Amino acid sequence: xxxxxxxxxxSPNGLLHLGHAYSALFTAVWAEALGGRFLLRxxxxxxxxxxxxxxxxxxxxxxxxxxxxxxxxxxxxxxxPVYAAAAGRLRARDLLYPCFCSRAELAAxxxxxxxxxxxxxxxxxxxxxxxxxRQRFAEGHQANWRLKTDEATALTGVLTYSVAGPTPADRPxxxxxxxxxxxxVVLQRKxxxxxxxxxxxxxxxxxxxxxxxxxxxxxxxTDIHVLLQMLLGLSSPSYTFHxxxxxxxxxxxxxxxxxxxxxxxxxxxxxxxxIRQELGF
Length: 281
Ligand code: GLU
Description:
36% of the residues lie in helices and 15% in strands. It is an alpha/beta fold. Strands 1-2-3 form a 3-stranded parallel β-sheet. Strands 4-5-8 form a 3-stranded antiparallel β-sheet. Strands 6-7 form a two-stranded antiparallel ribbon.
């Protein structure tokens, strides 16, 4: 058995809130219980939304909470060529195709939604000829590169993943992945050689991550992650999905809704010990 490696992997596109604090503490405590390593990874592939000041704030807030992580910290923005190479391997197997549809065109489609509630891609660009594709690129259009999910799953066959926790008393379970419910997901975004799904599986493998711990709301993404792990010959960690921290209305905290940040709690005089206790650590 490889020695356990766990990671907390925030995106520096805003200040961390109590939901992040819970996830980071959960991961660190789980790593300690397993006698494993705790890594921090900065998921900053979105160059327009990621800001260095938010990365600095992540370091500050996590240290304030009493967490310690290994150095150096991997920043995904330094690894675009690695992700492009992984996508290149899928392209070489004809498993990706360029999609030129605009957001407005996508919003106007009607064919069901994926687990995130986004419209399922109806495959419009999957039928473009080589000549049409060449012409669109020659005209300066950018493409999202989508996975031919049905062809990919036909290659891999039935996929499963193992779930442990969220408490040590929970029996480990094997669950089926259902990548088809995501349709043809984007693996390389317009102007970026990667996407969340692609970078996360490449880096979990590169960093030897054995246990992925993340919020319950992210379990559906595992469908795509295990599919990519199988296609790319990457390791498949065990998964633990923890509870979500909710606001007074029972909604998940989020940066975009401006949920109270750890920084503002600290500035209001709350101590790290109080926050840890409130979150059950
Ligand atoms: N970077 C992602 C986020 O901030 C999630 C990381 C993961 O667990 O894969 O929500």
